[in-house]
Every structure is written in structure tokens, then in C-alpha cells.
Amino acid sequence: MASEPVRETVVIVDGSERRSANLRDGLAQRWLVLEPEPGDSGSDASDRLAATLDALVSEQYGLIGVSAGASAALDQALRSPERVTALILVAPLAVRPAGTGHTGGSTDLEHRLSEVQCPTLVVFGQEDARVAPEAASIYRNRIPNCNIAFVYGAGHDIAADRPQALLNLVADYLERRETFIVQSRSGAINP
Amino acid sequence: MKASYLGAMGYAHRRDFPPTWPTPPSYSDPATSVQSYQDGIEECEFAEEMGFEWVSFSEHHYSGRIATGTPAVMAAAVAERCKSVKIAMLGPLLPLNNPVRAAEELTLLDNITNGRLVMGFLRGTPNEDQVYGVHPSEGRERLLEGMDLILKAMTEPEPFSWEGRYYQYRTVAVWPRPVQQPFPSALVATRSDDAVQYAAEHGLGLGVSFVPWEQVAGITERYLRWCDEAGWQPEPDQLVFRGSIYLAETDQQAQDWFRQQTDQGRAPGMALRSSVSQVIQASRAGQDVDYRNVFAGSASGDIVGGAPGLTFVGGPDTVFEQIKAYHDQCGTGVIDLFFQQPSLTHRDVMTEIDLFGREVLPRLKEL
After folding, report:
1. Cα(A87)–Cα(A84) distance, integer angstroms
2. Which residues contact B96 (CB under 8 A, 6 or more apart)?
């Protein structure tokens, strides 16, 4: 990873039981990383997050929501579309399709996915039993500019199972947005 | 019980090959090669006519003995000639291949056969590790990840990125979707516990090859226990055994032929220089190896057993009993048979298929 810092802020809303220190510390080498307390779920948490970001961040920022923190991050992207440059949802629990045994997500947020204006990456652990397999299609189909990614060998806690893979993926997306699908490394063996 | 014909597509003059691997391309005469593939396709057609219910293909490289380095190409050709048999790709060697490419080939085959595909995933024999420059110690993990990626590529309805340990693809959207939903009949060809367990946990069948039934029974017992723990029971078609066969009219004729082969030093199987073989095996096991004095491609050198010898030898009654043991002791539901022994001509193989179809197969189908 290049040592030259980029002057952009990245906000991590980590609602997982075990905070993703590897992700935070890894991104902090290149970005100014803020990690507000996620608080409880629900509109109060989203209001507090919005107030915190209004107070602390004056410019645009990339936004990452992890696990239960994805709902607040998604809500923030909808509230402040002019400020969120990229949205990354990691093992999100924001959308939990009915009839799949993975209920409990926000119907309102699910209906508003089409309003997300920034490039969005949604990352799933290949073996995540807490996220319905159908969820990937819902994000992909409803968010206008959305990529989905599966991390092999990871369950719900991707940061614990494949820390470097998650960091590389997230950093690549923060830097290149939707063009991250284009190979940027040379394949030459003996140039 | 069902029978499967392994479409090996062996080069007609394979009896002249040196016993080592790889076979130098200089041994391949185009006219002979063209005729060999036509003969091999004819054998598949005749096998179907005689009652074989599967035709299988296997990925082997740099040898005219099983001359299908790109088995999907061969399977596509045979699928147009054999209209009812299952087309069993047993299979792509996943550690060597791009799994997305494998998924594309497999779904296309499932489409052009209208859902007749059986796909088998395996690691390959040690010599194959030399072919595309994959580190032998990575084969096991590449197999496991490759299977996950292929099944994901066949079942995920939207384009996705894959962040694997060995594979990274930022856009995967395999087209066409398989005819068989959610994915074609699949098995894992293995004797290793981790891959057997993977098969059980993912609802996949089990393929075992070239070992005595006593050994297959132990593997199958563990597989069935893990299937039970995963809450399902495999169908007979999901227990496949591949063996090598020589069938004659009588036991005496078969034994005479086998003795003749042994006397002439034509033990079935491939061979590597022992030093190469030792390095691959050590490397697969993650051991330090001394790479000095190691080279491949020589037609001379020490001969070590690469593939095992014949599994089934005899007249019809004996061969039936030999195969029946796998059914009775291991639950084998499909027997996949390699007929093209190195010294046999196309005519010999056709005679064997005829004899097998008349004298052995009807009895197997009653099991």
C-alpha cells in the first residue's frame, strides 16, 4: 500500500460484536478514519450518527457500514447524498428478505435502496449464515451503481476470517470506486 | 447399477510410447491421431448402444494414453453423437484451471446436452502438477476454493466479485445458466478426508478410482456418516467408482493376456522419473525438497508406478463378481470403466465392449 496519504475521510460504522481493528488500522495508513460509536439500532442511532458527522466532518467522505452498522450507514447515505462519495456495506444486516428465515431488517431501507446515489459495494462472507443468500441480488438490483463481492473462507465476521482480503478489497474500492473491476496489477513475470 | 464408458481417446499406437511421462509430441502422427479420435468416438457410440448409461471424460495432459487434455472439447463432440447417455466430466482438474472457465465449460455442456451433464471435481494425478506451473502444495486448497467458486458461479443470479485465497475475479457472471437447477449433478473425486467431507456437506456425490473395494468401503463409510450428519442420503448414482478393465471370453484368456503384458514390461499406468515423482509428492505434503537432479521430459530414467494396474480382469462371470463387490461392499452405483489398455487395438476394445454389453452389463443392471 502506498505511503502517500490521500486527503479524504473514511467513516466506519461498525455494528459487529467485535470491532474491525484490522480494517480501521489498515485504512488509517491512507485515509483519515473516523469510527463513531454505532449506538443502538433504530432512528435515534441514525440521528446521532448524522449529528456526529455534521459536527466532525466538513467535507465529503467514504462511508463503511459493518454488520448491524450497515443500516445506519445506509440511512446516512440517503440523508446526505452530496457528502457520501462511496458506500461500502460489509456483511450488512440492513436487508433481510421475508420468507428466508433471515428477517428483522428494515423494510423502509429496503424500499429506499433505489435512492442511493453514490457508488456502492456490498461485501458478503461466502459462508455467512446470518445473511440470506437472496440479499445480494436485492442490493445489486435496487441500488443504481452497486457491486457485490463474496469473500471466500469468511463467515459473518469477515474482518476476523480474512482481514487482509477485506482490507485490500475495501481500499481498492475506496480508491477506484466502480472501476475497481479493472485489473490494475501487471501480470508480467519477467518484464 | 449403471456402467460408464471412459472415453480415453487413446492414440492408436500408444503401445509404442516410452513408459515415462510426458510422451514427447514427436510420437504424434496427425493422420493416426485423427483416426484415433474417430475410433474413440465410435467406441463411445457403441458403448451407448450396448447399454452403458454414462460416457465419461477425464483431464490428462501431455500423453496419448488418455488423450483429452481439454475434456470439455471432447465431451462436446461425443455429446453430439451419443444422444441419451449422461456426459460425465470426471473431470476438470480444478487446481490447474481457472474455475470460472471451468464453470463456463460445464454450464455450456449442460445446455448443449439438455441437462445430461455430470460434473466431477478433482485434483489430478501428481504428474499433472507440472503442467500449468501450480505449486503442488497448493492443490488441496485450490480444489476446495475452486469448487466453492464454481458452485457460486452457477447459482448466483447477479454479477459478483470473488475475493478468494487463490482466485480473485472482480466480475463473474457465468453464462449460460445450467439446465439442471440449482446446478448439474456433481461429485468430488477424491480419497482425502477434507474433500470427502466437503462433498458430504455440500450434497455432492463421491467418486473414487483405482483402489481395491476394501479401501473404497472405508472412504464410503466416512462419506455416508458425514452425509447423515449433514441431513441427507446420497442416491446410488452419486457413488461412482472408476476402474481399469480387461475382459476376455474366459478367465484363462484374460490371465494369458495379462501375463503376456507383464512379461513384455507393459504394466498399465504412467510413469515419471522417480526423482520427479518424489519431489511432487514431497511438495504436496509441504516438505522441503532437494530440487537438484530433477527434470521431467526424459524418455529414459527410473520407472515408478504412476497409475495403478488393472482393477477388473477375467471372463464375464469373474468380472461381474469383481464389480459386484464394489456394489455390495461400497454401495457403488456407477462403475466407470477404462477399457483402452495400451496394447489393445480399436477392434479389440470394440470386441470387449460388445462382450461386456452382452454378458456383464445386463447382470449389473439388476443389482
Report:
1. 7
2. B59, B124, B128, B129, B131, B132, B134
DSSP secondary structure code for residue A157 in this structure:
-
pLDDT at B294 over 90: no
DSSP labels, B133-182: T--GGGHHHHHHHHHHHHHHHHH--S-EEEE-SS-EEEEE--SSPPSSSS
Q: Tell me which residue has cell 496394447.
A: B343
> Average pLDDT of B311-337?
96
Q: Which of B148, B160, B167 sits opposite A148 (nearest CB)?
A: B160
Q: Would you tell me which residues 119-158 of chain B have a C-beta closer than 8 angstroms to some C-beta of chain A?
A: 145, 148-149, 152, 156-158
CATH classification of A9-176, choosing from 3.40.50.1820, 3.40.50.300, 3.40.50.620, 2.40.50.730?
3.40.50.1820
Give the model confidence (pLDDT) of B331-362 as tens digits. 999 999 999 988 899 999 999 999 999 999 99
Chain A, nearest residue to B172 by Cα:
A149
CB-defined contacts A:B, below 8 A: 56
C-alpha to C-alpha distance for A172 and A180, rounded to whole angstroms? 6
Inter-chain touch A141–B158, beta carbons under 8 Å: yes
Amino acid at residue number B18: P
CATH class, B2-266+309-365 region: alpha beta
Kind plus residue range of the DSSP H or E element containing B6: strand B2-6
Tell me what pLDDT residue A4 has.
58
pLDDT value at position B248?
96
Which residues in chain B are closer than 8 Å to A149, comparing Cβ atoms?
160-163, 170
In chain A, residues 109-148 whose CB comes closer than 8 Å to chain B: 123, 126, 136-137, 140-141, 147-148
Q: Which of B14, B51, B5 shows the shortest CA–CA distance to B244?
A: B5
Q: Answer whether residue A12 shows pLDDT above 80.
A: yes
Which residues of chain B are within 8 Å of residue A126 when distances are taken between CB atoms? 148, 152
pLDDT digit string (tens) for B171-220?
A: 999 999 999 999 999 999 998 999 999 999 999 999 999 888 999 999 99
Query: What are the start and end residues of each CATH 3.20.20.30 domain in chain B?
Result: 2-266+309-365
pLDDT tens for each residue of B94-115: 999 999 999 999 999 999 999 9
- B176 within 8 A of B111, measured Cβ to Cβ: yes
Cβ distance B170 to A182 less than 8 Å, yes or no, reads: yes
Q: Which of B157, B163, B171 sits opposite A150 (nearest CB)?
A: B163
pLDDT band for position A100 (50/70/90)? low
Comparing CB atoms, the residue among A148, A162, A169 nearest residue B158 is A148
Is the pLDDT assigned to residue B308 strictly greater than 60? no
Work out the end-to-end distance of chain B between its first and last CA atoms, rounded to an integer number of angstroms. 6
| Site of grid cell 428465515 | A101
Listed by start position, the domains of chain A span 9-176
pLDDT, tens only, B206-220: 999 988 899 999 999
* Distance to chain A for B159, nearest Cα, Å: 7
Closest CA to A53 of A77, A19, A23: A77
